[in-house]
Amino acid sequence: DWTPDSFVETTVAALREKLGDDKVVLGLSGGVDSSVAAVLLHQAIGKNLHCIFVDNGLLRKDEFESVLESYKHMGLNIKGVDAKQRFYDALSGLSDPEKKRKAIGRVFIEVFDDEAHQVQDVKWLGQGTIYPDVIESVSVKGPSATIKSHHNVGGLPDFMKLKVVEPLNTLFKDEVRRVGKTLKIDDNILGRHPFPGPGLAIRILGEITPEKVAILQEADAIYINNLRSAGVYDKVWQAGAIYLPVQSVGVMGDERTYENVVCLRAVESLDGMTADWCHLPYDLLAKISNEIINNVKGINRVVYDISSKPPATIEWE
Ligand code: XMP
Protein backbone atom coordinates (compact mmCIF):
# COMPACT_ATOMS: atom_id res chain seq x y z
CA ASP A 1 0.00 0.00 0.00
CA TRP A 2 1.17 3.52 -0.86
CA THR A 3 1.85 5.69 2.16
CA PRO A 4 3.79 8.97 2.28
CA ASP A 5 6.27 7.42 4.72
CA SER A 6 7.04 4.40 2.57
CA PHE A 7 7.30 6.65 -0.48
CA VAL A 8 9.87 8.85 1.27
CA GLU A 9 11.87 5.88 2.47
CA THR A 10 12.10 4.09 -0.87
CA THR A 11 12.56 7.28 -2.89
CA VAL A 12 15.39 8.61 -0.73
CA ALA A 13 17.17 5.25 -0.91
CA ALA A 14 16.72 5.06 -4.69
CA LEU A 15 17.96 8.64 -5.15
CA ARG A 16 21.05 7.91 -3.06
CA GLU A 17 21.77 4.84 -5.16
CA LYS A 18 21.21 6.66 -8.46
CA LEU A 19 23.08 9.88 -7.66
CA GLY A 20 25.99 8.67 -5.54
CA ASP A 21 28.35 11.63 -5.09
CA ASP A 22 26.99 13.55 -8.08
CA LYS A 23 25.82 17.14 -7.84
CA VAL A 24 22.28 18.20 -8.70
CA VAL A 25 21.02 21.68 -9.54
CA LEU A 26 17.33 22.53 -9.01
CA GLY A 27 15.23 25.65 -9.48
CA LEU A 28 12.90 26.40 -6.59
CA SER A 29 9.77 28.45 -7.20
CA GLY A 30 8.23 28.70 -3.74
CA GLY A 31 5.54 26.27 -4.88
CA VAL A 32 4.66 22.89 -3.44
CA ASP A 33 6.15 20.60 -6.11
CA SER A 34 9.64 22.04 -6.41
CA SER A 35 9.86 22.36 -2.61
CA VAL A 36 8.94 18.71 -1.97
CA ALA A 37 11.32 17.54 -4.72
CA ALA A 38 14.10 19.61 -3.15
CA VAL A 39 13.58 18.25 0.35
CA LEU A 40 13.59 14.64 -0.92
CA LEU A 41 16.80 15.24 -2.85
CA HIS A 42 18.29 17.02 0.13
CA GLN A 43 17.56 14.01 2.36
CA ALA A 44 19.26 11.79 -0.19
CA ILE A 45 22.37 13.80 -1.09
CA GLY A 46 22.57 16.76 1.35
CA LYS A 47 24.85 19.58 0.26
CA ASN A 48 25.32 18.09 -3.21
CA LEU A 49 21.89 19.51 -4.00
CA HIS A 50 22.29 23.10 -5.16
CA CYS A 51 19.00 25.00 -5.21
CA ILE A 52 18.44 28.24 -7.08
CA PHE A 53 15.60 30.63 -6.33
CA VAL A 54 15.21 33.49 -8.79
CA ASP A 55 13.61 36.81 -7.92
CA ASN A 56 12.01 37.80 -11.23
CA GLY A 57 10.51 40.96 -9.74
CA LEU A 58 7.05 39.52 -10.38
CA LEU A 59 6.47 37.76 -7.08
CA ARG A 60 4.04 38.77 -4.36
CA LYS A 61 4.99 41.39 -1.80
CA ASP A 62 7.93 40.23 0.38
CA GLU A 63 7.60 36.73 -1.11
CA PHE A 64 11.22 36.36 -2.18
CA GLU A 65 12.63 37.15 1.27
CA SER A 66 10.11 35.13 3.25
CA VAL A 67 10.25 32.03 1.05
CA LEU A 68 14.05 32.15 0.92
CA GLU A 69 14.04 32.31 4.71
CA SER A 70 11.77 29.22 4.92
CA TYR A 71 14.05 27.28 2.59
CA LYS A 72 17.13 28.19 4.59
CA HIS A 73 15.30 27.16 7.73
CA MET A 74 14.69 23.76 6.14
CA GLY A 75 18.46 23.38 5.77
CA LEU A 76 18.54 23.57 1.97
CA ASN A 77 21.69 24.64 0.20
CA ILE A 78 20.08 27.53 -1.65
CA LYS A 79 21.14 30.60 -3.57
CA GLY A 80 18.71 33.49 -4.01
CA VAL A 81 19.33 35.44 -7.21
CA ASP A 82 18.08 39.00 -7.68
CA ALA A 83 17.32 39.19 -11.39
CA LYS A 84 14.49 41.73 -11.18
CA GLN A 85 16.04 44.23 -13.54
CA ARG A 86 16.79 41.62 -16.23
CA PHE A 87 13.13 40.64 -16.28
CA TYR A 88 11.86 44.24 -16.28
CA ASP A 89 14.22 45.09 -19.15
CA ALA A 90 13.02 42.11 -21.18
CA LEU A 91 9.38 43.00 -20.51
CA SER A 92 9.73 46.66 -21.37
CA GLY A 93 7.40 47.60 -24.24
CA LEU A 94 5.60 44.23 -24.30
CA SER A 95 1.87 44.03 -23.74
CA ASP A 96 0.82 40.85 -25.54
CA PRO A 97 0.33 38.08 -22.95
CA GLU A 98 2.13 35.38 -24.93
CA LYS A 99 5.05 37.70 -25.72
CA LYS A 100 5.33 38.47 -22.01
CA ARG A 101 5.30 34.75 -21.16
CA LYS A 102 7.98 34.02 -23.77
CA ALA A 103 10.22 36.85 -22.57
CA ILE A 104 9.94 35.68 -18.98
CA GLY A 105 10.66 32.06 -19.96
CA ARG A 106 13.69 33.13 -21.97
CA VAL A 107 15.19 35.29 -19.22
CA PHE A 108 14.54 32.58 -16.65
CA ILE A 109 16.50 30.10 -18.76
CA GLU A 110 19.38 32.60 -19.16
CA VAL A 111 19.54 33.38 -15.45
CA PHE A 112 19.27 29.73 -14.46
CA ASP A 113 21.95 28.74 -16.97
CA ASP A 114 24.34 31.39 -15.58
CA GLU A 115 23.76 30.10 -12.07
CA ALA A 116 24.01 26.42 -12.98
CA HIS A 117 27.43 27.13 -14.49
CA GLN A 118 28.68 28.26 -11.11
CA VAL A 119 28.14 24.79 -9.67
CA GLN A 120 31.33 22.89 -10.50
CA ASP A 121 30.90 19.47 -12.12
CA VAL A 122 27.14 19.42 -11.84
CA LYS A 123 25.70 16.29 -13.49
CA TRP A 124 21.95 16.43 -12.93
CA LEU A 125 19.00 18.78 -13.25
CA GLY A 126 16.39 18.18 -10.52
CA GLN A 127 12.76 18.96 -11.34
CA GLY A 128 9.49 18.93 -9.42
CA THR A 129 7.53 17.42 -12.34
CA ILE A 130 4.45 15.54 -11.11
CA TYR A 131 2.46 12.82 -12.86
CA PRO A 132 -0.21 15.06 -14.43
CA ASP A 133 2.61 17.15 -16.02
CA VAL A 134 3.98 13.98 -17.56
CA ILE A 135 0.72 12.77 -19.06
CA GLU A 136 -0.75 16.09 -20.04
CA SER A 137 1.94 17.34 -22.35
CA VAL A 138 -0.15 20.05 -24.00
CA SER A 139 -1.81 22.12 -21.33
CA VAL A 140 1.07 22.61 -18.92
CA LYS A 141 2.04 26.24 -19.00
CA GLY A 142 4.67 26.34 -16.27
CA PRO A 143 8.40 27.05 -16.51
CA SER A 144 8.96 23.38 -17.38
CA ALA A 145 6.73 23.79 -20.44
CA THR A 146 8.78 26.80 -21.47
CA ILE A 147 11.91 24.74 -21.11
CA LYS A 148 10.39 21.97 -23.21
CA SER A 149 9.35 24.25 -26.04
CA HIS A 150 12.90 25.55 -26.08
CA HIS A 151 13.98 22.12 -27.37
CA ASN A 152 12.78 23.10 -30.81
CA VAL A 153 14.80 26.27 -30.99
CA GLY A 154 18.22 24.65 -31.18
CA GLY A 155 21.27 25.80 -29.21
CA LEU A 156 20.18 24.41 -25.88
CA PRO A 157 21.46 26.11 -22.75
CA ASP A 158 24.04 23.93 -21.06
CA PHE A 159 21.90 22.97 -18.08
CA MET A 160 19.46 21.33 -20.49
CA LYS A 161 22.17 18.85 -21.41
CA LEU A 162 22.20 17.58 -17.84
CA LYS A 163 20.57 14.30 -16.95
CA VAL A 164 17.14 14.87 -15.42
CA VAL A 165 16.01 13.57 -12.03
CA GLU A 166 12.30 13.92 -11.19
CA PRO A 167 11.47 12.25 -7.87
CA LEU A 168 7.74 13.17 -7.99
CA ASN A 169 6.87 12.06 -11.51
CA THR A 170 4.61 9.23 -10.34
CA LEU A 171 2.58 11.35 -7.88
CA PHE A 172 -0.63 13.35 -8.02
CA LYS A 173 -0.87 16.74 -6.33
CA ASP A 174 -2.62 15.50 -3.18
CA GLU A 175 0.04 12.82 -2.77
CA VAL A 176 2.77 15.44 -3.14
CA ARG A 177 1.12 17.45 -0.33
CA ARG A 178 0.97 14.35 1.89
CA VAL A 179 4.64 13.62 1.21
CA GLY A 180 5.39 17.26 2.04
CA LYS A 181 3.59 16.89 5.39
CA THR A 182 5.61 13.75 6.21
CA LEU A 183 8.76 15.71 5.39
CA LYS A 184 7.57 18.46 7.78
CA ILE A 185 7.70 21.18 5.16
CA ASP A 186 6.33 24.54 6.43
CA ASP A 187 2.55 24.93 6.10
CA ASN A 188 3.32 28.34 4.69
CA ILE A 189 4.75 26.54 1.64
CA LEU A 190 2.52 23.43 1.50
CA GLY A 191 -0.74 25.33 1.85
CA ARG A 192 -0.03 28.03 -0.71
CA HIS A 193 -2.38 28.83 -3.51
CA PRO A 194 -1.09 27.98 -6.98
CA PHE A 195 0.79 30.93 -8.46
CA PRO A 196 1.66 31.17 -12.16
CA GLY A 197 5.30 31.03 -13.27
CA PRO A 198 5.08 34.44 -15.01
CA GLY A 199 3.70 35.80 -11.73
CA LEU A 200 2.25 39.29 -11.55
CA ALA A 201 3.24 39.92 -15.18
CA ILE A 202 0.03 38.21 -16.31
CA ARG A 203 -1.99 39.97 -13.60
CA ILE A 204 -0.99 43.41 -14.88
CA LEU A 205 -2.89 43.73 -18.13
CA GLY A 206 -0.77 45.37 -20.77
CA GLU A 207 2.74 46.70 -20.27
CA ILE A 208 4.68 45.95 -17.08
CA THR A 209 6.48 48.64 -15.13
CA PRO A 210 8.10 48.32 -11.71
CA GLU A 211 5.65 50.99 -10.47
CA LYS A 212 2.61 48.93 -11.50
CA VAL A 213 4.17 45.85 -9.91
CA ALA A 214 4.60 47.77 -6.63
CA ILE A 215 0.97 48.95 -6.69
CA LEU A 216 -0.37 45.48 -7.42
CA GLN A 217 1.82 43.92 -4.72
CA GLU A 218 0.31 46.27 -2.14
CA ALA A 219 -3.28 45.61 -3.22
CA ASP A 220 -2.70 41.85 -3.45
CA ALA A 221 -1.09 41.74 0.01
CA ILE A 222 -4.08 43.51 1.57
CA TYR A 223 -6.40 41.06 -0.19
CA ILE A 224 -4.50 37.90 0.78
CA ASN A 225 -3.90 39.02 4.38
CA ASN A 226 -7.62 39.66 4.79
CA LEU A 227 -8.47 36.22 3.38
CA ARG A 228 -6.08 34.73 5.93
CA SER A 229 -7.33 36.66 8.91
CA ALA A 230 -10.95 35.90 8.00
CA GLY A 231 -10.07 32.18 7.90
CA VAL A 232 -11.04 31.98 4.23
CA TYR A 233 -7.62 31.50 2.61
CA ASP A 234 -7.52 27.71 2.99
CA LYS A 235 -11.03 27.30 1.61
CA VAL A 236 -10.18 29.10 -1.61
CA TRP A 237 -8.27 27.25 -4.34
CA GLN A 238 -6.62 30.34 -5.75
CA ALA A 239 -6.95 34.08 -5.21
CA GLY A 240 -5.19 37.16 -6.45
CA ALA A 241 -5.59 40.76 -7.53
CA ILE A 242 -5.40 42.00 -11.11
CA TYR A 243 -4.29 45.46 -12.20
CA LEU A 244 -6.53 46.79 -14.94
CA PRO A 245 -5.27 49.31 -17.51
CA VAL A 246 -8.40 51.38 -16.96
CA GLN A 247 -8.69 54.71 -15.18
CA SER A 248 -11.88 55.92 -13.63
CA VAL A 249 -13.00 59.00 -11.78
CA GLY A 250 -13.32 59.09 -8.01
CA VAL A 251 -13.33 61.52 -5.08
CA MET A 252 -10.89 61.56 -2.18
CA GLY A 253 -11.73 64.28 0.37
CA ASP A 254 -12.41 67.35 -1.78
CA GLU A 255 -10.26 66.13 -4.63
CA ARG A 256 -11.30 64.52 -7.86
CA THR A 257 -9.15 61.50 -8.64
CA TYR A 258 -8.53 59.69 -11.92
CA GLU A 259 -6.81 56.43 -11.12
CA ASN A 260 -6.62 52.73 -11.91
CA VAL A 261 -8.91 49.82 -11.10
CA VAL A 262 -7.96 46.64 -9.25
CA CYS A 263 -10.00 43.50 -9.74
CA LEU A 264 -10.17 40.79 -7.08
CA ARG A 265 -10.38 37.15 -8.20
CA ALA A 266 -11.03 34.08 -6.03
CA VAL A 267 -11.97 30.65 -7.34
CA GLU A 268 -12.84 27.18 -6.16
CA SER A 269 -11.39 24.38 -8.24
CA LEU A 270 -9.97 20.87 -8.06
CA ASP A 271 -7.29 21.08 -10.70
CA GLY A 272 -7.52 24.49 -12.36
CA MET A 273 -9.15 23.02 -15.48
CA THR A 274 -12.58 24.24 -14.43
CA ALA A 275 -13.33 26.75 -11.69
CA ASP A 276 -16.18 28.55 -9.98
CA TRP A 277 -15.93 32.06 -8.59
CA CYS A 278 -16.09 32.11 -4.79
CA HIS A 279 -19.05 33.69 -3.05
CA LEU A 280 -16.94 35.66 -0.59
CA PRO A 281 -18.92 37.38 2.18
CA TYR A 282 -19.98 40.93 1.26
CA ASP A 283 -18.62 42.44 4.47
CA LEU A 284 -15.22 40.88 3.81
CA LEU A 285 -15.21 42.28 0.27
CA ALA A 286 -16.25 45.69 1.63
CA LYS A 287 -13.39 45.68 4.16
CA ILE A 288 -10.82 44.70 1.52
CA SER A 289 -12.09 47.30 -0.94
CA ASN A 290 -11.89 50.09 1.67
CA GLU A 291 -8.45 49.07 2.78
CA ILE A 292 -7.09 48.95 -0.75
CA ILE A 293 -8.57 52.28 -1.81
CA ASN A 294 -7.49 54.03 1.40
CA ASN A 295 -3.96 52.65 1.42
CA VAL A 296 -2.81 52.00 -2.12
CA LYS A 297 -1.88 55.14 -3.96
CA GLY A 298 -2.92 54.91 -7.61
CA ILE A 299 -6.05 52.81 -7.03
CA ASN A 300 -9.47 54.43 -6.56
CA ARG A 301 -11.80 51.57 -7.51
CA VAL A 302 -12.04 47.86 -6.70
CA VAL A 303 -14.21 45.32 -8.56
CA TYR A 304 -14.87 41.60 -8.01
CA ASP A 305 -14.74 39.02 -10.80
CA ILE A 306 -17.89 36.85 -10.94
CA SER A 307 -16.90 34.74 -13.96
CA SER A 308 -16.42 30.98 -13.88
CA LYS A 309 -14.18 28.78 -16.03
CA PRO A 310 -15.21 27.97 -18.69
CA PRO A 311 -15.88 30.23 -20.47
CA ALA A 312 -13.60 32.65 -18.56
CA THR A 313 -10.14 31.52 -17.45
CA ILE A 314 -8.72 31.89 -13.94
CA GLU A 315 -6.08 34.39 -14.98
CA TRP A 316 -6.99 37.40 -17.12
CA GLU A 317 -4.11 36.85 -19.54
P1 XMP B 1 -6.11 29.65 -16.54
O1 XMP B 1 -5.92 31.14 -16.56
O2 XMP B 1 -5.62 29.00 -17.80
O3 XMP B 1 -5.21 29.08 -15.36
O4 XMP B 1 -7.52 29.25 -16.22
C1 XMP B 1 -5.25 27.76 -14.89
C2 XMP B 1 -4.15 27.60 -13.86
O5 XMP B 1 -2.88 27.72 -14.50
C3 XMP B 1 -2.16 28.80 -13.95
N1 XMP B 1 -1.45 29.45 -15.05
C4 XMP B 1 -0.13 29.37 -15.26
N2 XMP B 1 0.83 28.73 -14.58
N3 XMP B 1 2.43 29.53 -16.11
C5 XMP B 1 2.12 28.83 -15.00
O6 XMP B 1 3.03 28.27 -14.38
C6 XMP B 1 1.52 30.20 -16.86
O7 XMP B 1 1.86 30.85 -17.86
C7 XMP B 1 0.17 30.11 -16.39
N4 XMP B 1 -1.00 30.61 -16.86
C8 XMP B 1 -1.98 30.21 -16.00
C9 XMP B 1 -3.18 29.68 -13.29
O8 XMP B 1 -2.60 30.47 -12.24
C10 XMP B 1 -4.17 28.68 -12.78
O9 XMP B 1 -3.74 28.08 -11.55
Automatic annotation (TrEMBL):
Domain GMPS ATP-PPase: 2-192
Annotated pathway: Purine metabolism; GMP biosynthesis; GMP from XMP (L-Gln route): step 1/1
EC code: 6.3.5.2
Catalysed reactions listed for this entry: XMP + L-glutamine + ATP + H2O = GMP + L-glutamate + AMP + diphosphate + 2 H(+)
Any one cellular-component term (Gene Ontology): cytosol
Sites where the protein binds ATP: S29, G30, G31, V32, D33, S34, S35
Enzyme class, spelled out: ligase
GO molecular function: ATP binding; GMP synthase activity
UniProt keywords, alphabetically: ATP-binding, Glutamine amidotransferase, GMP biosynthesis, Ligase, Nucleotide-binding, Purine biosynthesis
Function: Catalyzes the synthesis of GMP from XMP.
Quaternary structure annotation from Swiss-Prot or TrEMBL: Homodimer.
Protein name (database record): GMP synthase [glutamine-hydrolyzing]
Naturally occurring in which organism (per UniProt): Mucilaginibacter mali
Name of the gene: guaA
Interval of the full protein contained in this chain: 193 to 509 of 509
